[in-house]
Design a protein that fits this description.
Length: 363
């Protein structure tokens, strides 16, 4: 039970850190967080992998489709249909760009075209769902990991040796891909590296390694991650050949650091533990809704500082005010409000199910 809760707590810590980074927290904190917070989720996927699926290809693929592909497609299509409405509400704007990309209204043809890309390639997603690149990378990375583990039967026999072999193989392929195809390596290398981190999590679980809870080791891990943030700062979406290997090592160290912290918290019995467990069990809601919820903070800032309404479209936050302390408000809203949305959604689902059951039994 403690181990299961420590996984939820680690995921809860990681998703809160992700929202803090998106909220434009202090620069070094963003670099520090970026070194491990998304790899931790891939690591957890491998850690939670069940070996029974190695003999059940169909069952595993169905599980991945329902758990990852379907939520991605469902929410992307909904937000795609709302795209032009977001322009009317000033949530999107023609002037503001993000990473050099500006937005525009979609014609009916463009909506259909983008919907096809969303369904069949998990690409061309909406800006407000930018965090869903994680679902695409986890979906494809987990499939790569799965078939690599199955295929390793022809090379090695030991289950643990399979994990080591596949992990090294995926990391080398990632680096090789970045050398051969540097112009298009970001997305593909991201997916391959996701498979690598999934494999590391799987190997960690297979070896039954106990997460060391000694404070001194946790602090030392934090120092190593901080060194990485200073000398090779990057994230899974900004990889180059030269920093892939040190980033991978730093990400694993950072992941183990968070797992060590989560094991400490799991031994407690207080409100902090309960909140983090709940957050960790509902990370998808935060991933989906936090960018849209940031707009409420934008609206508050606009009202307080008498800014033009088109500042509502600033993405992900109004930078000037975020770096002057408002990132904390963005963080609180970006975590709490999506959880409330998720609770409301679950209550509505439960109510509708009960209503249908009542009508069925009555008929």
């Amino acid at each position: 039970m403690d181990r299961n809760q420590s996984v939820s707590i680690a995921k809860g810590i990681a998703i809160v850190l992700m929202v803090a980074a998106h909220a434009n927290c202090p620069s070094f904190a963003q670099k520090f967080i970026g070194m491990y917070h998304m790899p931790l989720f891939f690591f957890m996927s491998g850690y939670c992998f069940r070996n029974k699926y190695l003999q059940d290809v169909k069952g595993y693929l169905i599980k991945r489709i329902y758990g990852l592909w379907l939520p991605f497609v469902k929410y992307e299509l909904v937000f795609l249909l709302l795209h032009n409405l977001f322009f009317e509400l000033n949530i999107y704007d023609y002037e503001f760009s993000f990473n050099g990309v500006t937005l525009h209204d979609y014609s009916s043809f463009e909506i259909v075209k983008r919907a096809i890309f969303i369904v069949f390639t998990m690409s061309h997603g909406e800006r407000l769902l930018g965090g869903l690149w994680f679902l695409r990378s986890l979906f494809l990375g987990s499939i790569i990991f799965y078939f690599a583990i199955r295929g390793s039967n022809f090379v090695v026999e030991s289950r643990n040796s399979k994990g080591v072999f596949v992990g090294i193989f995926l990391l080398l392929i990632t680096m090789l891909f970045e050398v051969i195809f540097p112009a298009s390596s970001n997305i593909c290398a991201n997916i391959l590296l996701a498979g690598f981190f999934i494999c590391i999590g799987y190997l960690y679980k297979s070896l039954d390694l106990e997460i060391d809870r000694k404070i001194i080791l946790i602090v030392f891990s934090g120092i190593l991650v901080a060194i990485g943030a200073m000398y090779w700062p990057c994230g899974m979406m900004s990889l180059e050949f030269y920093n892939t290997f040190p980033y991978a090592i730093t990400a694993i160290i950072g992941t183990l650091m968070v797992l060590g912290i989560s094991r400490h918290i799991s031994k407690c019995n207080n409100w902090c533990k309960k909140i983090l467990v709940y957050i960790g069990d509902n990370t998808l809601d935060i991933l989906i809704w936090h960018f849209l919820c940031f707009k409420l903070v934008n609206l508050l800032i606009i009202g307080l500082y008498e800014l033009p309404m088109n500042k509502l479209a600033d993405f992900p936050v109004i930078e000037y005010h975020a770096v002057h302390g408002w990132w904390l408000i963005y963080l609180i809203v970006g975590v709490c409000l999506p959880l409330l949305i998720g609770m409301l959604k679950d209550n509505v689902k439960s109510y509708l199910k009960d209503l249908l059951k009542f009508r069925f039994h009555k008929s």
